Amino acid sequence: MRLLGLETRALTAGLIFSLGTLGAASSQAADTYTVGVEASFPPWAYVEGGEYKGIAIDAMEKIAEDQGLDIEFKDLPFPSLIPALSAEKIDILATGLTVTEQRAKVIDFTIPWWETNDVIVVPKDSDLNVFTAVCCGATVGVQGGSSQKAWMEANVTNSDIDVNLKSYDSYVTAITDMLNGRISAVDVDDTSAQEYINEGRPVKLAGKIFIRAPLALAVSKGDPQGLLAKLNQGIVNLAESGEWATIVHNYIPGVTVPSVPGKMPEYVDTYRKPVAGLPDLGN
Amino acid sequence: MDIYDVLLRDFPFLLKGLGVALVLLAALLALGFVIGLTICLIQLYGPRTRFVQWPLKVYERIFRGVPIIIMLFIFYYGLAGIFDISSFAAAILALGFRSGAYQSQIFRSAFQSIPAGQMTAARASGMTLTQAIRWILFPQAIRHAIGPWTNEFSSEIKETSLAYVIGVVELTRQAHYIITSTQGNVLTVFAVVALLYFIVNKAGNSGLYWLEARLAVPGFEKRQ
Amino acid sequence: MADVPVLRVDDIHKRYGDNEVLKGISLTLERGATKVLIGPSGSGKSTLLRCINHLNKPDRGTIELDGQRITDANIDRMRAQIGFVFQDFNLFSHLTVLDNVRICQLKVKRLSHEEATRRAHEELERVGLGDKAGAYPAELSGGQQQRVSIARALAMDPMLMLFDEPTSALDPELTGEVVKVMQQLADDGMTMLVVSHEMGFARQAADEIIFMEGGYIIEQGPPDVLFSTPAQERTRAFLNVIAEHG
């Protein structure tokens, strides 16, 4: 009985502890902005040796420094990032985030800082090309919630092309599954694909889909924190100072850095004149 | 750097992730214990009115019926408008409330397996309801509950790995970091992670079996 | 003071749904008296016993213990002064014999550990189980368990003992040891109300036999009178049945 008494006390302590963590949650410093990242998305954001790394991480830190913002990173799985931004659990989204019409309805984009095209990746020893890889009953892997998935759904699976899509929680898992022979190809952005090849994974590019997709940072819809102007200015300053190219080349040596700002699609509200922080820009 | 060097270098981070998982596990089981025991006691010994009993039934149905991922999202995002809640706190609440629904069942059948006459005898000797529960029923119910509770322990360890969807960086997420930063090695990394989960599970089960054996008295022999 | 009975039951009614089990029962128990309730099954004997300490709450009527009315407010204090022995013993399975006898002294009467232990050993000696203090209920025979449950009740120093068919769940060869303990208690001057079919005990130990049927007390009187020359036809019929089977 004494033993049980002890146990009850230990459990009570555990409960008090867990209530304590609840309290701690709401007492975060108010002027630190939380930057949501998907930290398993190299070269944009990942964790190595316990530290955040990647193009988006380094660039975001520079922008914050330039604009005098206090930031902290928070890792969330990719499908969770946009809901987290909508619910204002994070203030800024910084990852390899493609600008799409659908996303523009629920979050506000900064000016584009990168441009990608999608590529079809196949195993090194495969003889598929971009046409044979995406047809004839093939299964193509994409990351759930990604722009590649949306593009494939809009342009391929909804047409008479006979292709199955398989969603993964990350591209790395999709590539692994492909190398295990479960799927025949993976549709991914060219930046990531280059990374896989640089890392020495036995994959090759079967072909490119030129979609010229702009990538950008994002804030909650309506920009409740007033961050958009600062981020836009920060991006332009970063590009003009040449630091942007340095960061990018640090992660993807030899890549051509697109001009900043990139293509600004009309369907994005925040790209109409006057663009926050950059009144001369826009369409 | 091959994957074994990376694993060796990043092992402290895996252990940190394991630590997060263990604290989450302890907190959710403790919360579930308190909720489960409270629900069970109200159901068995509380007012019999529908006004009290019906909401408890609804609570159980909801938390046992809704997939845990959805619960995690509801607690993390859904409560965002009401009060700001950290990923970790949301995970404790979502998993703990659900564990409470399961634990209430474990405790209910544990209490029900005690012959009703013992409660009567305790009350007839002048014990209050609370005293009778505390001194006569609870020590016996705990003995009956340890077996099923061990199952709950094992299944909740696995559930903690889902907390990464709302941004809790626990063991599985740390493993994911290694996999993505090294481009692959899914099998090797997850084999190590599986081993860590296995060790925790084994240690927890052994502890609970030890407790069961320790508390065993004639009439409450450890059942195999 | 002397004329206040230990127990006064006045006009107790109890109904379960459509079935009125007790239809106005009154009786008194003087200090040191032993009364035995007999009657066919379903006559309401056990219900009456459980109504006395409100294990089943009476619908109507009053119970007084030593001149004090039992109410919802004082029920736990009153119950602590009424020992109750069940048909099924109802020992606490997770506790040793010693702890079974000690626990209510410690938790209800809040006696010191030493005092409770001393009283427990005394009562276990009285029921002849001094050597079983460390055993668990599951290790005892039915007769031994029932004697422990009597010791458990006695250790609370009750002013009244209620026995609800204490030998009915026992194998016939084990009833003797329990009856012997009850007999000894009656001789020692304990105030007792007993529901039992042990006619030998009733004849020897009872000051009065109360015959119940259909929720009423049909007849009561000293055992030698009631057993030999019952006034009521129904009492006679019941006694004949008992004689044939017992």
TrEMBL record, chain A:
Keywords: Signal. Residues 32-255 form the Solute-binding protein family 3/N-terminal domain. InterPro entries: Iontro_rcpt_C (IPR001320), Solute-binding_3/MltF_N (IPR001638). Residues 1-29 form the signal peptide. SUPFAM superfamilies: Periplasmic binding protein-like II. Residues 32-254 form the Ionotropic glutamate receptor C-terminal domain. The keyword Signal applies. PANTHER family: ARGININE-BINDING EXTRACELLULAR PROTEIN ARTP, MEMBRANE-BOUND LYTIC MUREIN TRANSGLYCOSYLASE F. Belongs to the bacterial solute-binding protein 3 family. This is Transporter substrate-binding domain-containing protein.
TrEMBL record, chain B:
The chain crosses the membrane at residues 20-45, 66-95, 177-200. It is found in: Cell inner membrane; Cell membrane. Residues 18-204 form the ABC transmembrane type-1 domain. CDD domains: TM_PBP2. Keywords: Amino-acid transport, Cell membrane, Membrane, Transmembrane, Transmembrane helix, Transport. It is a multi-pass membrane protein. InterPro entries: AA_ABC_transptr_permease_3TM, ArtM/GltK/GlnP/TcyL/YhdX-like, MetI-like, MetI-like_sf. Pfam families: BPD_transp_1. Belongs to the binding-protein-dependent transport system permease family. HisMQ subfamily. PANTHER family: L-CYSTINE TRANSPORT SYSTEM PERMEASE PROTEIN TCYL, MEMBRANE COMPONENT OF AMINO ACID ABC TRANSPORTER. This is Amino acid ABC transporter permease. It comes from Modicisalibacter tunisiensis. The lineage of its organism: Bacteria, Pseudomonadati, Pseudomonadota, Gammaproteobacteria, Oceanospirillales.
